[in-house]
Amino acid sequence: MENLSIKGTDDTPSIELNKEQNIYTISGMSLPEDVKSFYRPVIDWFTKYFNEPN
């Protein structure tokens, strides 16, 4: 399973999802213009993770 890393901006949070190192962080402001497209990779990552959790 690949890691997910999204660099934060003034309007979007930084996101680090790393199954191997047990790192699951979302931090910062969350005001993206298109919420669905911004969070789609996060939802997809957790959907895969729930099928094979640590």
Quick take:
With 54 residues, the chain is α+β, with helices and mostly antiparallel strands.
Topology of helices and strands:
Layout: E1 4-6, E2 14-18, E3 23-27, H1 35-51
Antiparallel strand pairs: 1-2, 2-3
Strand content: 15-25%
The count of domains is 1
**H and E order:** EEEH
In round numbers, the mean pLDDT is: 97
Instruction: Please mark out the parts with pLDDT under 50 across 5 or more consecutive residues, or reply none.
Output: none
Radius of gyration: 11 Å
Main beta sheet: 3 strands, antiparallel
What level of helicity do the residues show? Answer: 25-40%
Number of helices: 1
Shape: globular
Structure description:
The protein has one helix and three strands; from the N terminus they run E-E-E-H. It starts with a strand and ends with a helix. It has one domain. The longest helix has 17 residues, at 35-51. The protein is globular and about 30 Å long. It is an alpha+beta fold and 54 residues long.
